[in-house]
Amino acid sequence: MTEATWGDDAKTPDIDWWMSAALENVPRGDADLAEVTSLEGAVRTWMTLDPEHRDAAVLTPERPLHIDGAAHATLACDGIAALAERLPSANDEG
Q1: Residue 15 falls within a domain, yes or no?
Q2: 12 domain-assigned
Q3: CB half-sphere exposure, 21, CA atoms < 13 A
Q4: Helices 77-85 and 39-48 sit at what angle, rounded to 10 degrees?
Q5: Domain span at residue 40?
Q6: How far apart are CA 38 and CA 92, in angstroms?
Q7: pTM higher than 0.85 for the full model?
Q8: Partner of 59 for a Cys bridge, out of 45, 52, 75, 93, CB 3.0 to 4.6 A?
Q9: Which of 2, 30, 29, 26 minimizes the C-alpha distance to 80?
């Protein structure tokens, strides 16, 4: 029998930065349209937005993300900021 452990790794498993994600309510030309890209691309795009659009943006990954023990099907302002803190650096592999 295998014993289950519930440490910090179980609360926030590795994030699949390559899954699809939609970043909504962001400026695209003359309109605010959704952009569908990778999760990493969406978070990096969010980081370049002005504060007004950051506050309005909604991120919807293709499947829920587990952060600090909670599943998130959509994220907004503070949730996207929490993801931005976990972004892999350009030097990371994987």
Answers
A1: no
A2: no
A3: 29
A4: 110
A5: 20-85
A6: 17
A7: no
A8: 75
A9: 26
